[in-house]
């Protein structure tokens, strides 16, 4: 199996290592210090007290990635639209694509059914470009439950790996799952990938923006009565939105919050973005839900308010 990679960072790098350890060949698109590190040393993976170097081919030429069996996209979801020309340059008629992104992915409403079927969300896919470029039948849908960080260019530190859930209908899904499993990635497959996406987002869509606004970790948010009340309200609004579009059964708010509590004082990706001065991944994680709610006439006043506040913070921080 030949795998091309755009975004061999915290999660993309971990998955790339899994593919190579499972028997695949990987070619990574990189630049600057990352390109130099990958070419001179290889991809370094630090996990469970051990450090290993994974052999990859690294290049800054997208043409060198063309013709792979699978294109792994490990960039943040809000960066995907700008990469559309590069993705189009790489993909062939036989290439599958695995976008390992947070939030509501561009493929989510294709073939979904119900009042949201086929709608395009500008928050994740302006103009529907990504959905046209990467049709759902060629998408290896996935949900990643893991935490890792980039310790240095080309050097990934795995913090925690719970599981990666794969779904969708592309031919070759079982081969991809088997390869990752051989490479040490904890894999599950499911026929209900939309529910898995929604379940993860049910926790992330509130904790992420609230942590950025309050500069607080997850434990602090849960322990504060006011913040706790906002979390519950946002979760109920998302559960109601789920019913509206055909995803029922998201009733156990206490159980979902208990799962997050077990993770302790985690610093969400948006909080880390604030601290590092990076743009927030707000559109895919919360903006898409607010936009979807408007499209299907479902009121979500708390989600809409928090989205507005987080957006103001993002713009004001970058205007300084």
Automatic annotation (TrEMBL):
Asked whether the UniProt record includes Calcium among its keywords, one would answer no
Q: Which UniProt keywords apply?
A: Pantothenate biosynthesis
GO biological process assignments: pantothenate biosynthetic process
EC number(s) per entry: 1.1.1.169
Domain Ketopantoate reductase C-terminal, chain residue ranges per copy:
193-310
**Out of the domains of life, which is the source?**
Bacteria
* Pfam families, sorted: ApbA (PF02558), ApbA_C (PF08546)
Domain Ketopantoate reductase N-terminal span(s) in chain numbering:
4-104
Question: What general EC class does the enzyme of this chain belong to?
Answer: oxidoreductase
* GO MF terms held by the record: 2-dehydropantoate 2-reductase activity
Q: Which reaction does it catalyse?
A: (R)-pantoate + NADP(+) = 2-dehydropantoate + NADPH + H(+)
Answer whether the UniProt record assigns the keyword Membrane to this protein.
no
GO CC annotations, alphabetized: cytoplasm
Q: Which InterPro entries match?
A: 6-PGluconate_DH-like_C_sf, 6PGD_dom2, KPA_reductase, KPR-Related, KPR_N, NAD(P)-bd_dom_sf
Q: In which pathway does it act?
A: Cofactor biosynthesis; (R)-pantothenate biosynthesis; (R)-pantoate from 3-methyl-2-oxobutanoate: step 2/2
> What's the protein name?
2-dehydropantoate 2-reductase
Q: Which organism is it from?
A: Donghicola eburneus
